[in-house]
Amino acid sequence: MQDSYKDRFNRLVTRAEHEFTDPACILGAAELLAGELDRLNIKVFDVETDLIGKDDSINAVPPEFILGSVLTYDYTKTPNLNTFTDISEFNKKLKYGTIYVGHNVCFDLNYVYRLRSNSTLLWDTAMFHYICTGQKDTFPSLNSLAEYYGISFSKEDKVSEMIKAGISPKYIPFEDLKKYCEQDVLLTWEIFKRQRDIFNAFNKAKKSLIITHMNWLKTVFYSSKTGINVDRDGLNKAITKLSSNVEYLKTCLESTMYLAYVKAGIKPRELDNSINIASPKQVATFIYGGEIAITKYVNTGTMYKSGMKKGTPKLRKESTKIPYNGYFKSYGVLDTSEEALRKLISCARVEAHTEAEEFLSKLLDYRDNSKTLNTYLIPYYERSERTGKIHPEYKHTGTPTGRLSCTKPNIQNLKGD
Q1: Confidence (pTM)
Q2: Among candidates 213, 190, 203, 189, which has minimal Cα distance to 34?
Q3: Is 274 exposed, middle or buried (CB count within 10 Å of its CB: 0-12, 13-18, 19+)?
Q4: Is the pLDDT reported for residue 66 higher than 80?
Q5: What pLDDT does residue 17 have?
């Protein structure tokens, strides 16, 4: 018995997902995509959810589903748009699709059960535009794509502005939110039709590139959703140990600055700002010298005649700057980068400047340990609290070079040691 069109399509896409380096599989799916629209069961979808914390990963614990809209286009040749507040009903409507279309779909995949199977082709309008503009247009918005493809539409700015202002979609009038979501779905559909025409004009190599990238979307999403196991007990011990070391180094460095100021005739209580080793400006002035702002209270020669201060002298606040000689002479650039500090350490050794060498070495250790603690250990421990894993978000359209970027946390930026 001859395979149905849908069976053939699903088999090719499934193979392409598992063997997406095989051009025959990918181009087979591309050829089917080039067929008549009504021969495909197309599902265009979007969801609206509660707000998520700025530093929270959507793939760890997705925010509450509020509503979802699905546009179906099949053999009836008439787009059918439905909106659901029940996530199960939303997913029922998504069944039996062969091509699933969305904009920045990796967010919406958290709420779509059907796409967790392999017999589907995903189409992300943002990804297609990003690739076709040579990665020049990063993170393209739906509205910007509509304008790019010359699609006229009436913006639902009221809902958008409310969400930007931090108002949860749960508190936005239902009809307004429903219209907002449906508008996005209709725009995505119109954009997809134009992109499909562009796709069909491509040569085989470029079609292969597009299909491969679309397949990667699901693969990378599931990788993020699965997460990376974290040794929370080990992290906790490392945090305790490193926190103690950071505090020790901070105390040593600030004590060194305190004693140096006293030796130079500067009273630390007169400083406009308290000593802070984390301040690049203070560190630069201490190392290279410069002017230090201080505040003095000078006796005016008169006394308070009443109130709680009666009989005490009145003081006048005077702000001034006094010169301070640092370890090294500055030639205009007060560079405190790691590279600059290592060069200064070498100079200190040559000049047998033990105090400067010790201060600079401890400063480098303090910065290194602080970064490890606050950039890696503590954030990883906090992010793994709910699931015991970290769930980094991979961004497909965020770099001008076409590579993946990563946030929450950025595991592409790990220390080598």
Answers
A1: 0.76
A2: 203
A3: exposed
A4: yes
A5: 46
Angle, helix 174-200 to helix 23-33, in steps of 10 degrees: 120
What b/e readout covers 340-352, taking b as 16+ CB neighbours within 10 angstroms? ebeebbeebeeee
216's tokens: 């990667």
Does position 197 have pLDDT exceeding 50, yes or no?
yes
Residue 350 has pLDDT above 90, yes or no: no
Residue 100 · residue 45 · CB < 8 Å: yes
In three state form, how does the secondary structure of 110-121 look? HHCCHHHCCCCE
Please name every residue paired with 69 in a beta bridge, in sequence order, or none if there are none.
46, 83
Distances 188 to 45, 278, 356, 397 between C-alpha atoms, Å:
8, 48, 62, 17
How many other CB atoms sit within 10 Å of the CB of residue 373?
A: 18
155 token code pair: 């913006």
Question: Among 194, 226, 211, 217, which residue's Cα sits nearest to residue 105?
Answer: 217
Q: What is the pLDDT of residues 86-117, one digit of tens each?
A: 999 999 998 888 789 999 999 999 998 866 55
List, in sequence order, every residue forming a beta bridge with 271; answer none if it has no partner. 294
Share of the chain above pLDDT 90, in %: 39
Name residue 371's amino acid.
K
